[in-house]
Amino acid sequence: MLYLSIAIGGALGAMGRYWLASSLNGISSINSSQFPTGVFIVNVLGCFLIGVAFIFFSEKVLLQEQWRPIVMVGFLGGFTTFSTFSLDALLLFQQGHYNTALLYIGASVILCLIAAFVGIHAARLFF
């Protein structure tokens, strides 16, 4: 039953990623420079949320422990995407958008780490 719950969480996360990334790509003026705005924002948001979820489960116990793998592995694992990030970066390089690719890689890694850090501290502060 746990594996089915994780799979359902993953499916919901993937659908959320697709919807949000598609919506953001459609309205972003940054996208004209080939920057993968939707995936970038989804990954940063997902890292913030995993920081919050970590505190919920490990310190605040606001959710029962059985929800941890469903939320963290399933939903947030499906919501964020390292594979699409990697493909986007490689395609930018192949298309000759070297500066955009390097900006995307650097900003993704740095801002995702910062987002997880902020999520952890925000959850401790506000919950």
Sheet of most strands: none
Number of domains: 1
String of helices and strands: HHHHH
Low-confidence stretches: none
Report how far apart the termini are: 30 Å
Helix vs. strand class: mainly alpha
Q: What's the gyration radius in Å? A: 16 Å
Broad shape: globular
Beta-strand percentage range: under 5%
Can you offer a commentary on this structure?
With 127 residues, this protein is mainly α. The chain has one domain (2-126). It is built from five helices and no strands. It has helices at 2-27, 37-60, 68-79, 82-94, 98-126. Helix 2 (37-60) runs antiparallel to helix 3. The longest helix is centred in the last third of the chain and has 29 residues, at 98-126. 31% of the residues are buried. The model has no long low-confidence stretch (mean pLDDT 93).
What's the SSE blueprint?
Blueprint (H helix, E strand, L loop, with lengths): L1 H26 L9 H24 L7 H12 L2 H13 L3 H29 L1
Helix pairs in contact: 1-2, 1-3, 2-3, 2-5, 4-5
